[in-house]
Write a structure and sequence with these properties.
By secondary structure, this protein is mostly helical. The chain has five helices and no strands.
Length: 111
Amino acid sequence: MVWGMLVVMVEEVSIAGLRAKKAAKQTRVLAGVQSVVIFLLLVMVAAEYDHNEYLQAWAGMHLGGFGFLLNGTLAAFYAGVLIAVHLNRPVPVVAGRVRRREEIPVAPEAR
């Protein structure tokens, strides 16, 4: 029985598994960098839209009712999605462990 528990607890490590984990981490970092770049581009478009009357007129003519998205609404929505995705990540295994509570000695007079 003990041997079975030990076999389950041991994680098999292989070169292919380590490469897959490294590739997944690199992909996650790249996706994060791309998301930040997209957000910064949306902020720049919003700033340009606020200061450029020609762009506002063009958006009103060609985009119809969707021109309001260029004034920062789309950037704010995208920022909200980024924050929600960031906060919704699973808790790392180390941080998710329940710690055992230690009893703190207290003098009888303090109770």
